[in-house]
Amino acid sequence: MSTPMQKHEVKAQRAAVVDTSHSPFAGLRPLSVAAVRINDAFWKPRLETNRTVTIPFQYQQCEATGRLDNFRRASGHYDGPFQGRFYNDSDVYKWLEAASWSLASQPDPHLESQVEDVITIIGAAQEENGYLDTYFTFERVPERWTNLRVLHELYCAGHLIQAAVAHHRATGSTSFLKIAVRLADHIVDTFGPDGIAGACGHPEVEMALVELARDTGDQRYVQEAQFFIDQRGQHLPLMSGSTYDQDHAPIREQREVVGHAVRALYLYSGVTDIYAETGEQALEEAVEALWQNFMTRKVYITGGAGARYEGEAFGENYELPNERAYTETCAAIASVMWNWRLLLLKKEARFADALETTLYNGVLSGVSLNGQEYFYQNPLADSGHHRRQPWFSTACCPPNVARLFASLPGYLYSTSNEGLWVHLYIANTAEVPLVNGQTITVQQRTNYPWEGEVELEVQTDRPAFFSLFLRIPAWAQGASITINGQVYSGSIEPGSYVEIQREWKAGDSVHLSLPLEVRMLESNQHVRNNYRRVAILRGPLVYCVEQVDNPGVDLDAIVLPAQSEWEVVARPELLGGIQTIQARALLHASKNAVDESPLYRPYKVEKPTYTSVLLTAIPYYIWANREAGAMQVWLPVDPYV
Amino acid sequence: MSTPMQKHEVKAQRAAVVDTSHSPFAGLRPLSVAAVRINDAFWKPRLETNRTVTIPFQYQQCEATGRLDNFRRASGHYDGPFQGRFYNDSDVYKWLEAASWSLASQPDPHLESQVEDVITIIGAAQEENGYLDTYFTFERVPERWTNLRVLHELYCAGHLIQAAVAHHRATGSTSFLKIAVRLADHIVDTFGPDGIAGACGHPEVEMALVELARDTGDQRYVQEAQFFIDQRGQHLPLMSGSTYDQDHAPIREQREVVGHAVRALYLYSGVTDIYAETGEQALEEAVEALWQNFMTRKVYITGGAGARYEGEAFGENYELPNERAYTETCAAIASVMWNWRLLLLKKEARFADALETTLYNGVLSGVSLNGQEYFYQNPLADSGHHRRQPWFSTACCPPNVARLFASLPGYLYSTSNEGLWVHLYIANTAEVPLVNGQTITVQQRTNYPWEGEVELEVQTDRPAFFSLFLRIPAWAQGASITINGQVYSGSIEPGSYVEIQREWKAGDSVHLSLPLEVRMLESNQHVRNNYRRVAILRGPLVYCVEQVDNPGVDLDAIVLPAQSEWEVVARPELLGGIQTIQARALLHASKNAVDESPLYRPYKVEKPTYTSVLLTAIPYYIWANREAGAMQVWLPVDPYV
Question: Catalytic residue positions of A?
Answer without folding.
Answer: 312, 396
